[in-house]
Amino acid sequence: MPDKVSPRLREEIARAIDDLGYVPNPAARTLASSRTNVIGVIIPSVTNNVFAAVLLGIYTALESTDYDIQLANSRYSALREESLLKVFLGQKPAGLIVTGIDQSEKSRELLEKAACPIVQIMEIDDNPVDLMVGFSHYEAACVATRHLIEQGYRGLGFIGARMDPRSQRRLRGFHDTASGAGLFSENRVITTTAASSVTLGAQLFAELMDRAPDLDAVFCNNDDLALGVMFEAQRRRIPVPGRLGICGFNDLEMMATAEPPITSVRTYRYEMGRHAVNMLVEAIEGTGGDGAVVDIGFEIRKRRSTSLGSPGL
Amino acid sequence: MPDKVSPRLREEIARAIDDLGYVPNPAARTLASSRTNVIGVIIPSVTNNVFAAVLLGIYTALESTDYDIQLANSRYSALREESLLKVFLGQKPAGLIVTGIDQSEKSRELLEKAACPIVQIMEIDDNPVDLMVGFSHYEAACVATRHLIEQGYRGLGFIGARMDPRSQRRLRGFHDTASGAGLFSENRVITTTAASSVTLGAQLFAELMDRAPDLDAVFCNNDDLALGVMFEAQRRRIPVPGRLGICGFNDLEMMATAEPPITSVRTYRYEMGRHAVNMLVEAIEGTGGDGAVVDIGFEIRKRRSTSLGSPGL
DNA sequence: TTGTATGCGTTATCAC
DNA sequence: GTGATAACGCATACAA
User: Fold this and answer.
1) Chain B partners of A259 at a C-beta cutoff of 8 Å?
2) Which nucleotides of D are covered by protein (CB under 7 A)?
3) Which of A56, A87, A148, B154 has the most CB atoms within 10 Å of its CB?
4) Domains of chain B with bracketed CATH
5) What is the mean pLDDT of the segment spanning B140-148?
6) B253 and A199: CB-CB below 8 Å?
7) How confident is the model at residue A66, as a pLDDT?
8) Strand pairing of A264-267 and A298-301?
């Protein structure tokens, strides 16, 4: 579409289009060109604030393009993801954004032979289907656990819900780091596959505390659980951070305002969404090399909830 | 599609379809039939938990149908909603779900003359474009305010963020009820158009408390703000509910687990989403009468954060 | 009932 | 370049 038309003529055309009430028919367009401007997005949950933020990044980045997005949520089921993938690929999408690196074998196959660029988000490893943007949940958990140890906590515990692949990698990071310092005890780990919530955090903490009185710090799978732990600690008059250290994951906005403010691992959800779209569009339009893996990183936000050893926090 | 085929034959057909790798082409289908199976959804925000829950209801209800959903967020802008509406209507959608009743004049016009069923969600009034499912934010605020009065609070205040039309109606409900009891003071009301957050709740409460020391109860526009108020009260060693009553709005899951548990107005977000889809599909398929307005109600959840007069709570 | 031709609105191709 | 025309893949109306 060369812009060699005079502004004058251009306007006239626009007016004519408007007068005739012409509206392009997308169905006819994609049928004729056998090309769509649809980018498929599969996330595990729409209500989880983490993925909602990713989604916001995706929508925002897409606004300056003329791609449409087709959203689906897999509800943390690899099987459901697989069937969604089939439907999506049937539409011959311009690109695909999928969550994580734990697709089913069949899904992986479908993705490998897909005709469009694919970007996996939220995690990174050295075996991408195509594009990838995320961070290492394992490393993030290691850093958080190390922080607890450095603060002087010795009875390290872990509370986890949902236990999707990313949660499991966080647990591994916790395990390896705590073990390395000779501070790991299976007895101080409690997990469930139930959906995460503040209430669940309180319940799991209550259970864990009763079972393991030597517990003096918990690394929570996510911020909802951490908040629940804090509420339950307050109910039981357990001083935080004096008697109990609490560390969350994701650093939702409320963590900084809680009383006491809660330490958490900052992750860049919005940015991952934006980045994923940018990479994808570049790949679709052939302006960027493919096979790229970008590590978007994370950052531990140290706050009062873990300031046992450094009251200055 | 009469099911007069033998299961035997049916399976054979399915196998043949699978063998040939046949995948229906939706573009060709909509082009030929000049009908789409797309339902457009416009919500103000994807990250706001309230709308995320609505969305979950929508996606869930849609799973048993063969409609697709086209999602867009207006970012609380009537102007943006208008342009989204134009794009959506250009696609000749099978139906449309829009948020609220405060569309721009032009949007209203577009909706009125749209060829498909429309459902407005989140609110109700007696002037629907077509279908409607929601509840009265005004009434809900009245009930919440009355509760504070019944508990014995006299220095009633209001904290509001975003101040979209629904928030404004809640403020009106608060105003009218408090005024009716001779307990309204403009000095105890603080609002901002900034986006709501826990941090903002804490800030607004700090400001309000400094300005109006006679404040002894706050009705918050939403639960994030209420949680922020609670944290700030704890920081300032203000006893809740003894010296300060707190009431939120929406009853997010965390409200029941907070310490103290926070009173809130339960709203049925998920159900509104489901109901909207069901009404829409019925209207599209002509199996239901149109023009229906369904009041999905709300319920005040009384908890310790407002138990000044009834310690038994 | 079963089969066949025409049209949906665009893109893309091929003559010109 | 410019303008006519053949696909694109399915639905549908009509003929058999």
Assistant:
1) 231-232, 234-235
2) 7-12
3) A148
4) 29-135+269-297 (3.40.50.2300), 137-266 (3.40.50.2300)
5) 98
6) yes
7) 83
8) antiparallel
Distance (Å, whole) CA B198 – CA B244: 18
Q: What is the pTM of this model?
A: 0.92
Nearest CB to A23; choose among B23, B53, B90: B90
Of A77-91, A184-198, B135-149, the range with the lowest mean pLDDT is A77-91
Cβ of A235 within 8 Å of Cβ of B30? The answer is: no
Q: Rounded distance, CA A241 to CA A303, Å?
A: 10
Question: How many residue pairs from chains A and B have C-beta atoms closer than 8 A?
Answer: 100
A186-195, B3-12, B71-80, B245-254: segment of lowest average pLDDT: B3-12
> Which residues, at least 6 apart from A168, have a Cβ–Cβ distance to it below 8 Å?
none
Q: Is the pLDDT of residue A65 over 90?
A: no
CB contact under 8 A, B198 and A254: yes
Any strand D atom closer than 7 Å to B25 CB: yes
Residue B290, pLDDT > 60, answer: no
| Inter-chain residue contact A259 with B70, CB threshold 8 Å | no
State both tokens at B275: 């109901």
The dihedral region occupied by A119, where left means phi > 0, alpha psi between -120 and 50, and beta the remainder, is beta
A292-A293-A295 Cα angle (round to 5): 145
Asked if A89 contacts A111 with a C-beta cutoff of 8 angstroms, the reply is no
Window 46-105 of chain A: CB closer than 7 A to strand C: none
Number of H-type helices and E-type strands within chain A:
10, 12
pLDDT band for position B2 (cuts 50, 70, 90): very low
Residue in B23, B27, B199 closest to A27 by CB? B27
Question: Is the pLDDT score of A87 beyond 70?
Answer: yes
Give strand letter and number of the nucleotide nearest A33 (CA to C1').
C11
Strands A264-267 and B38-43: unpaired
